Amino acid sequence: MSTAPRLPTATARGHRVRELVCAYRPLRDTFGRVIGVPTLVLSNPRLAATTLAPLLADQSVEVFAVACLSARHRLLAWHVLSRGTRSATPVSMPDVFVPACLTPGTTAVIVVHNHPSGDPTPSADDAALTRRLQEAANILDLPLLDHLIVGEGERYYSFREAGRLGPVPSR
After folding, report:
1. Which of 12, 44, 114, 128 gets the most CB atoms within 10 Å of its CB?
2. Considering all CA atoms of the chain, what is the largest pairwise distance in Å, rounded to the nearest integer?
3. Other C-beta atoms lying within 10 Å of the C-beta of residue 117
4. By C-alpha distance, which of 45, 108, 56 is closest to 81?
5. Which residues, including other chains, have CB under 8 Å from residue 73's CB and lie 6 or more apart?
6. Segment holding 82, helix H or strand E
7. Strand order, beta sheet including 144-150
8. What is the pLDDT of residues 74-94, one digit of tens each?
């Protein structure tokens, strides 16, 4: 007689256990070419905007993304979270922080979105979203280094530069 425990068998009413498997692949442009960015430390808003803005270039709708950064603020991963309309895109806290929590080595994030109009001036909704992101980041102990809005050319708005995110979190 066997004393080994019996495993439950799957029934028509049973639940299946799922496993989350993450895989990273190179980001490609519309022609299928791998997009590369300089291996720079994103140490200030201008450098971050200059590095990340091309990843949203030529988008005719608002696109919201999160950049996952290492302890030395090097770009580890880029996650496009939503694509919206010419004037808005939906964003939820899990959309932002789940990819950051699942990307190995992430110690901070920068969120970025574009304004297809070319004017990076933040809306009242952008400011409210930034406050919610800051609160969530504080709870998760995952610093929000900046919320960048990119416009035409090299124009951008940094909530950090504008003093709307407080001091840079210490390590």
Report:
1. 114
2. 76
3. 12
4. 56
5. 41, 42, 43, 108, 145
6. strand 75-83
7. 75-83, 63-69, 108-114, 144-150, 156-158
8. 999 899 999 999 988 999 999
Amino acid sitting at position 148: L
Please report which confidence band the pLDDT of residue 39 belongs to, taking 50, 70 and 90 as the band edges.
low
Distance CA 96, CA 83 (A): 13
Establish if 33 belongs to a structural domain: no
User: Total domain count for the chain?
Assistant: 1
Of 134, 139, 135, 112, the residue nearest 56 (C-alpha): 112
User: What is this structure's pTM?
Assistant: 0.80
Residue 35 confidence class, pLDDT cut points 50, 70, 90: confident
What is the C-alpha R_g of the chain? Answer: 19
Phi, psi at 141, each rounded to 5°: 55, 40
**Residue 83: inside a domain:** yes
Q: Assess if residue 82 is contained within a domain.
A: yes
